[in-house]
Task: structure prediction
Amino acid sequence: MSEINIAAAIEAILFANGASVEAARIAQTLEISEKQAVEAAEKLMEEYSAAGRGITIIRLDDAFQMVSAKAYAAQIRTVMDLRRNTPLSQAALEVLAVVAYNQPVTKAFVEQVRGVDCSGVLGSLTAKGLVEEKGRLELPGRPLLYGTTENFLRCFNLQSLDDLPPLPEEEKKE
Result:
């Protein structure tokens, strides 16, 4: 497959899928190496960015997704008649930070760190798609484990959890 056809195929796959598509899946589908798929997708990202289009391609860990450009969020919201999401509360941001930096975590761990009940906040973050259940801990009662989602990465404009800023204690140790 020629380079132009690879780029066009990736563009079509991302557009048609709507959600993110892992580079390995793109490579498998196009019968190319994962490295070639990543390079072609990143080249497409650059082309979309340089052209100043209304859509762009973002990277989420090892996956890529076609999304609308942030510059047109107001117009998109208007045409789709969407209401602006309510901002996260201080408690929600705290719980989200605890989960993001320590995942997978139990509700009890988050409550121990924060010192207050967080059932409602975890439920709210789960409903917003920022946190999800990642399994169960092999302890009596088998408590749920929570972790962040791909939507969390998208909302906070992160490619991966490695892009989270370092914690203050970590900065002092280095």
